Amino acid sequence: MEQKSFRTVAATQGGVIGLVLAASMCFETCATLSGSVGLMGLMLVEWVAVVILHYWLLNRYTKQYAAQFPAEEGVPFYRVYCYVLLLSLCAGVIVGLAQAIYVHGVLGYSAYIEQYADALKQLLSQSPASSQMQPMLKQMFAQLEAAPVPSVLQTAWGGVTGSILFGGFFGLIIAGIQSRNPQLFTPKNDAE
């Protein structure tokens, strides 16, 4: 059986993570734009579940990567950390493309901003402190609507950087767990 190349494995594993994160991003955008308090609560539960799944997938794939190195050689922290960042980069490309297509292509950026502002107004109108915050909210909505429209590449880059930041944070933990020093003296098996 032919062994898959390092890049193919990393791209495939990063692609799986990217699809999970892209689906999560689409759901979270729909929930936010709905303005429904119930969907916002469900979004919070979904977000926690996706963070746990994201960590679990990164750890699982990194553990498989680290297992390829023999005990005599070990696997240093920086190699494991770089692998997590590579997976995060591959995932981020998928998330960024999905975000750009969804926000610019499916929804349209101006419609997205209008729906976002309406949903935020709806949620804040249910708050008891909304009357006290009216001047600040009006200024915030004016700035939101007056902001220049980001390009598709800027939107895609936002997905990439978000994924790399999450991966960088998780990578510190995962690399600390999965890296190992070389074992100079490996015990012999009794079966030999």
Short description:
By secondary structure, the chain is mainly alpha-helical. It has helices at residues 6-34, 37-67, 77-107, 109-125, 134-146, 152-178.
Give an overview of the whole structure.
With 192 residues, the protein is mainly α. The chain has one domain. The protein is built from six helices and no strands. The protein has helices at 6-34, 37-67, 77-107, 109-125, 134-146, 152-178. The protein is elongated. The model has no long low-confidence stretch (mean pLDDT 84).
**Which overall shape is indicated by the principal axes computed on the Cα atoms?**
elongated
**Low confidence ranges:** none
Largest sheet: none
* Class from helix and strand fractions: mainly alpha
Helix-strand topology string:
HHHHHH
In terms of DSSP E residues, the strand content is under 5%
Number of domains: 1
Number of strands: 0
Distance between the termini: 27 Å
- Average per-residue pLDDT, rounded, comes to 84
Write the layout of secondary structure elements.
Elements: H1 6-34, H2 37-67, H3 77-107, H4 109-125, H5 134-146, H6 152-178
Helix pairs in contact: 1-2, 1-3, 2-3, 2-6, 3-4, 3-6, 4-5
List keywords for this structure.
single chain; 192 residues; mainly alpha; 77% helix; 0% strand
